[in-house]
Amino acid sequence: MKVVNWTRNDFYKILASSFSFLDTQPRVAELGVLRGENAIVMYQTMKPSHMTLVDSWLAFPSFPDFGAYSPFDKLPNWVSPPDVFDDYFGGSVHEQATFDNLYEICCERFKNISNIRLIRQSTELAFETLKTEGALFDCVYVDANHQYEWVLRDLMLFQELVSPEGCIMLNDCAFSNEGMRQNLGVLEAVAHFIKRAPFRPVAMTVGSFADLILVRQGSRLGDLCDQLFVDSDVNWVEVPDQLLGAAKVVTGARRLNVSFT
């Protein structure tokens, strides 16, 4: 696995080049869409033949029920209450109107793009819908619920819809103090997923909310991605795939780094 001081947008360029070498115009899915800001970048960079966007656009449960955010009646003192993210969502996370507005923003963004489909369902229900339709994707971007069990479920389900030369990308795949405040479980879920499924990590960004690319073991896509990193002018460090779960963001005096000790 290569640890790269890049952004996820650079990863999209690597994947776009790899799919071009494979003579594939990819089919892309994103789980967790919000306003569609990341989706439009993926669309413009990877130029998919089709894109499916899945999000429930549902409000967080009201107190004291924290829903999937935390299993406890009282939040642990190391986890921030969901309300601190109101500004990010553009309104109270407990008001359905906030998420209805986000959905309308997303619909407006993509209203004139005919090969983008929005599915307003939970990822679990959307999986059943897409599986019944026989859908298959070359890239699935997982960015929905960030708690451990839900991320693991998304990975275990949607791996079935990834093409033989396809990949999975994940956001917020790091252990950091900022992530701990959000009760993130993405990194832990991925570390367990690659023990259960024939996928391997090919590259990871550096940062408190890192992005990660997973490819099928032995795939040509993985080999192409590796070679494109080798041929690029970016600095990267190779670490054993098995160390992924040990990754921890370390804050230095001037920048963030990743430690695997």
From TrEMBL:
Keyword Ribosomal protein among record annotations: no
SUPFAM superfamilies: S-adenosyl-L-methionine-dependent methyltransferases (SSF53335)
Keyword set includes Methyltransferase: yes
Top-level taxon: Bacteria
Alphabetical keyword list: Methyltransferase, Nucleotidyltransferase, Transferase
Protein's name according to its UniProt entry: Class I SAM-dependent methyltransferase
Gene Ontology MF terms: methyltransferase activity; nucleotidyltransferase activity
Enzyme Commission (EC) number: 2.1.1.-
Matching InterPro entries: SAM-dependent_MTases_sf
GO BP annotations listed: methylation
